[in-house]
Amino acid sequence: MCPAFPQEPDAAGVIAEKFVQRLAGDGHWVTVLTQFPISRRRRWSTVLYRVKNRHVPPAYWLRETTGFAGPLVASAGRKNAMRTGVAKAMETNITRHFPFAHLDLDQETMKIAFICAVFPPEPEPSGVMAHQLAACLSSGGHSVSVVVPFPNRPHGELYSGFRRRMRDVSMVPEGYRLVRCANWLIGKRRRSLDRVLENITFGFSAAYAMFREGRPDVVIVNTWPLFAVQFAALLARLWRVPFLYYVQDVYPEAAERVGLLRHRGPVARLCRFWDSRICRSSAKVIVISNSMRDLMAVSRRLPDSHFAVIPNWLDPKDFTVHPIDNAWRREQDIPTHTFVAMFGGTLGLVSGAGILIEVARLLRDRPDVLIVCVGEGVHKSPMIDQARFLELQNIRFLPFQPRERVPEVQGAANVTLLTMQPGYSDASIPSKLISYMASGRAVICAAPAHTAVAAIVAESGAGIVTAPGSPEALVQAIRHLAAHPDETACMGRRARSYFEQHFTLSRAHEQFSRLLTLVANS
Length: 522
Known about the structure:
Layout lengths: L10 H15 L4 E6 L8 H10 L1 E2 L3 E6 L12 H4 L3 H13 L13 E6 L8 H15 L3 E7 L17 E5 L5 E5 L10 H22 L4 E5 L4 H13 L3 E4 L6 H5 L8 H16 L2 E4 L2 H10 L7 E3 L17 H5 L7 E6 L10 H8 L6 E6 L5 H10 L5 E4 L7 H6 L3 E5 L12 H7 L3 E5 L5 H9 L2 E4 L4 H13 L1 H18 L2 H17 L1
Parallel strand pairs: 1-3, 4-5, 4-8, 5-7, 8-9, 9-10, 10-11, 12-13, 12-15, 13-14, 15-16, 16-17
Antiparallel strand pairs: 2-3, 6-7
């Protein structure tokens, strides 16, 4: 019996939930009797429905009532409840017996709504980061609800084992609520109309799902502009709660760079004006690099203080350094003496990966050099067709590999390849650079010298920066590193060291925690 239980933000309720999850995980049959959150204390018909249907993983029953009287009494005030004798006693007992109880009861807990456009089991790095961030915030005592679409990327088709419905709610083992909501799927053809419909429908369904979760203390939105963000921003404004606009790619600038929108055309100007309004309505705009902040500050006419720079990240525990001659490399029948240059990621419009066909053609005289492309994207099929037409035997194309094997896959490379289009700007920053550096491999970066990725590679000493769109420059860099293995290995060690200093999960969690506290207090 417990008077406070998530979704109410009392510390006693948060600790009680973790206590119950551990008991249930140990095989005990647990029934929790608690009262409805204040916003849902309604009529008895609702109570009966909840009693009948509320089965909450991992394997315990939650019974909610309109009132409660029992031996445990919590303070009515949220902040005072954090310091009641009940909370102290539970903290003491749980800490003594359970390793997960590291909550800091002096830290104010918050109810956080987190909207994400991609999420595991989808392989995109931004989805993996969203899961890790939600898990860290939940372990810190916050009540986190993550609103995501049903998995369909990269092919735009619903994953097997999932059935779309308007709203599907579950509790994940990491302690946060996962809310999946239906939206239009872009399909394999990826037409512009399908992309717009996907954006609008997810924006609407995500806002509806967030509304069903109840009023949070803060909203984090990490999804496609503009419709998908606008619905959530309007709901946050209605609730009078701060919302954080989390930007991975700057639109319409990114679309202008790849030719999807005419540069400074009427549609681009309208989108830029709309996005500026969204930025101004946010408590903070989170960007992933200083150069992206500078770009948006100028184009959105906002001060630097309106932005928070939090780089992307990986968990070092999940991304250990593997030897080059590992099991995955042997599974692919790649000889030990072969020098592997690997591109790992989306073969998309901004990737500039098309020049790798010409690179392979220029390296025909080096049978000991193999180019490996691991990933999917709109450029993959045309590249495969070109390689067949030219009868190239020194380039391979593989699909995305299971996430748990990515460190081993990239560890099988001697060097990694990061290509961008000549007109590339910091409107979009490839997250593959971080995984390259985490794998402890040298990076050949074909990007303009003024961009963030080129600056990181140059500053860290983790590789070679070449001119974008120049296959000859890439070939020269590959030949040089293949001829100097000691220099290549040294660059790989510097890459891993730089990653551990700047792009780890713990560092990002600290930055997000400080930002959330700042926004909540202001």
